[in-house]
Write a structure and sequence with these properties.
Blueprint lengths: L1 H6 L29 E4 L12 H4 L17 H13 L9 E4 L11 E5 L8 H12 L3 E7 L1 H15 L6 E2 L24 H4 L11 E6 L5 E7 L3 H6 L8 H20 L1
Parallel strand pairs: 1-2, 1-3, 3-4, 4-7
Antiparallel strand pairs: 5-6, 6-7
Helix pairs in contact: 4-5
Length: 264
């Protein structure tokens, strides 16, 4: 354990596409059992949706602002609080942005969350690193992308990671939906933005899907929340305007995915 901590990248806060000045909670330097690791990634050309898009123009994606920072760090830190309340895991109070280009650092973080992956475009080196990470036992949760166009952008990179492994619908009977909570009754998790628009989906993505990629032994390597915004359900869990039903499901999904990744 001590060797693992010795090689982990130090905690750092990046400017996000929604938040730039976010107070750091107590316990940020604690050595804990689990850390919320957020995947950093380069954007698909010409696709920079988000409040930070204008500020991101001409910048390096490794310095924040881009779509990988959506909901960050508010969603991450709210979810960590739920993990500490609802499980026996000791979770660090702050997140860890992870860049696949940073040597072997990704192997120190066995659970990765990637948001708005309908806007990513992994490099050849990142494809190789991510495949190796996942086949060694890592786990990736992809979330908050909507509609045909974003699915095609997402799939283009993931198919380069696993050209020989299909993306399939996860069956209700799969243990990922029953590790802590029984989640047979799942529904579309809409974002906070739906409170203003009155429409619970984006880009025509009205049909929710819970998809995944499995290894040869039937372990989920990648869990995909398509046409849902689970991250917003964490980010806005403390806002009385945001429907409790969304946060109730979103938090349970996240907890199940974490526990599954640590036990399979």
């Amino acid at each position: 354990m001590g060797v693992l901590f010795a090689f982990q990248k130090p905690f750092r806060v990046y400017p996000g596409d929604e938040y730039e000045d976010f107070a750091i909670p107590a316990g940020a330097s604690e050595k804990t059992e689990w850390v919320f690791a957020r995947l950093m990634y380069p954007p698909a050309p010409g696709y920079r949706w988000g409040r930070g898009a204008r500020r991101a123009n001409g910048r390096d994606w490794t310095e924040g602002f881009f779509s990988w920072t959506n909901d960050y760090p508010r969603a991450d830190r709210h979810f960590v609080q739920a993990v500490n309340r609802l499980t026996r895991l000791s979770a660090r109070s702050v997140e860890q942005p992870v860049n696949l280009n940073d040597g072997d650092d990704v192997y120190n973080w066995p659970w990765l969350y990637a948001v708005q992956t309908g806007q990513w475009q992994l490099t050849d080196a990142q494809v190789v690193k991510l495949r190796d990470y996942l086949l060694r036992g890592g786990f990736l949760m992809c979330d908050d992308f909507w509609g045909v166009r974003e699915w095609e952008i997402f799939e283009a990179s993931l198919k380069r990671v696993f050209p020989d492994r299909p993306i399939v619908e996860i069956e209700n009977s799969d243990s990922i939906f029953h590790t802590v909570f029984n989640l047979d009754d799942r529904y579309q998790v809409s974002g906070e933005w739906s409170l203003r628009s009155g429409i619970p989906y984006r880009n025509g993505g009205s049909d929710v899907h819970w998809r995944g990629v499995y290894d040869d032994k039937g372990r989920l390597l990648v869990a995909i929340c398509f046409n849902s915004d689970v991250g917003d359900s964490w980010e806005w869990a403390d806002d009385p305007r945001y429907p409790e039903a969304y946060s109730a499901l979103g938090i349970r999904i996240g907890v199940n995915y974490i526990v599954y990744s640590m036990t399979h």
